[in-house]
Write a structure and sequence with these properties.
The protein has 417 residues and is of the alpha/beta class. It contains 16 helices and 11 strands. It folds into 2 domains: 7-126, Orthogonal Bundle (N-utilizing Substance Protein B Homolog, Chain A), CATH 1.10.940.10; 211-414, 3-Layer(aba) Sandwich (Rossmann fold), CATH 3.40.50. Strands 4, 5, 6, 7, 8, 9, 10 and 11 form an 8-stranded mixed β-sheet that branches. The protein has a 3-stranded antiparallel β-sheet with strand order 2-1-3, with helices on one face.
Length: 417
């Protein structure tokens, strides 16, 4: 039997969603095996787009499905998963309904095709639509409280492409050349769509991909002036590149061999200098103390939900608790590696209070570090620090301009001996 065109993309998307929602894998982990048999780049891109939009709008898709069924389908039922994908294609990717039906129903071979066809057709006849912002999963809304309402508008679309320039002095010229917006010296924002390698300046190493929010921790260390800086958990290297470009002597430590390989590739492409080091920060001992340490700590990464919507469905209290313990262990060790008056930056790309605000309070109470408040003058794009002198970003910020990843950043100075 001849399969309809596009069935391989849909089957791969279904495999990825099953891996995320049933096995708790990241979408990045799931795509390697799911896309193995999908050869064409356009088909691979479609599979990823279907999976991402399904996860981004899943709560709203489920509400629509439930409105058209007499008996509620189980959350993990295959027909529900396929219906979510069908709605993602119609309501988000603007795929014609007949093409959606032709490529979705074969996924239910031997199963309730008639049910899926009937539910989908009912919703199409109703001319259903989606709300102005995705509805977050119930457990996420419970964790984030009032924060959920302001985060959701930033999740409507996948994010644009942010670049950090090797030479901030070229910001204006590069913005004109690439038809980009800029919210800070050394930052450019481009529309999505073009392959990274084809953007002007890539071969020459003039820039690297880095969300504006992700660039803020290194910006808060200021000019390097030859200072010895330790970038903990450094790979794939965006912050290392920033620090090196600002004149710091950087040791870039990470445990992952693969991710350190990416860091080394980025150093080679940009021509910047740093000292990559593979080691476990929980057991490694430095040979000397540092003028500054940037700890972009391992975290749940819920702040990246606008580009990785799978985190909305995978992360719960257990993962948060595990990360909190790891982060505290890293902070305790890093604090001992600072010279007197040295500066520690703690950052996480998480929207969880436990990993951000609560950790800063714990550091204040338990470490020999004095808070060093972040000021509005140090921040780009009109961002403001909190009353405590911390920085909190989230996807709802700058939503009309493409939003920001969710980050928490705080800064301390080592109490002099």
């Amino acid at each position: 039997m001849v399969q309809p065109s596009g069935i391989h993309s849909r089957r791969a998307a279904l495999q990825m969603l099953d891996a995320v929602l049933r096995r708790g894998e990241t979408l990045e982990q799931a795509e390697h095996s799911a896309l193995r048999s999908v050869r064409k780049p356009a088909d691979r891109g479609l599979a990823l787009a279907i999976a991402n939009e399904t996860l981004r709008w899943q709560t709203d898709f489920d509400a629509l499905i439930d409105s058209a069924t007499k008996q509620r389908l189980p959350d993990d039922a295959k027909p529900r998963m396929v219906l979510r994908m069908m709605l993602a294609q119609t309501l988000r990717l603007e795929t014609p309904p007949h093409a959606v039906i032709a490529t979705a129903l074969p996924l239910l071979a031997g199963g309730p095709r008639r049910l899926a066809h009937g539910v989908f057709s009912t919703l199409i006849k109703r001319e259903v639509s989606l709300p102005a912002a995705p509805t977050l999963p119930e457990l996420v809304m419970e964790r984030w409280g009032a924060r959920a309402e302001i985060v959701a508008p930033g999740l409507f679309d996948p994010p644009p492409l942010d670049l950090t320039l090797r030479d901030a002095g070229e910001t204006q010229a590069m913005a004109v050349q690439l038809a980009a917006d800029s919210f800070a010296p050394g930052h450019l924002r481009l529309a999505r769509g073009e392959a990274i390698e084809k953007i002007d300046g890539f071969p020459e190493g003039k820039w690297w991909v880095q969300d504006l929010a992700a660039s803020l921790p290194a910006r808060l260390l200021g000019e390097g002036e030859g200072r010895h800086v330790l970038d903990l958990c450094a790979a794939p290297g965006g912050k290392t590149l920033q620090l090196a470009a600002n004149g710091s002597s950087v040791t870039a430590l990470d445990l992952s061999k693969r991710r350190l390989g990416l860091l080394k590739e980025n150093l080679q492409r940009t021509g910047l200098k740093a000292s990559p080091l593979r080691a476990d920060a929980l057991t490694w001992e430095p040979k000397h103390q540092y003028d500054a340490i940037l700890l972009d700590a391992p975290c749940t990464a819920t702040g990246t939900c606008r580009r990785h919507p799978d985190v909305l469905h995978r992360i719960g209290p257990r993962q948060i608790e595990e990360m909190v313990a790891l982060q505290r262990g890293l902070v305790e060790r890093a604090a001992t590696w600072l010279k007197p008056d040295g500066v520690l930056i703690y950052a996480v790309c998480s929207l969880e209070h436990e990993e951000g605000e609560n950790q800063a309070e714990w550091i204040n109470a338990n470490c020999d570090l004095a808070p060093l408040a972040i000021t509005a003058a140090e921040l780009p794009a009109g961002l403001q620090p909190t009353a405590e002198g911390w920085l909190r970003t989230h996807p709802g910020m700058l939503a009309d301009e493409g939003g920001l990843d969710g980050f928490f950043v705080a800064r301390w100075r080592k109490v002099g001996d």
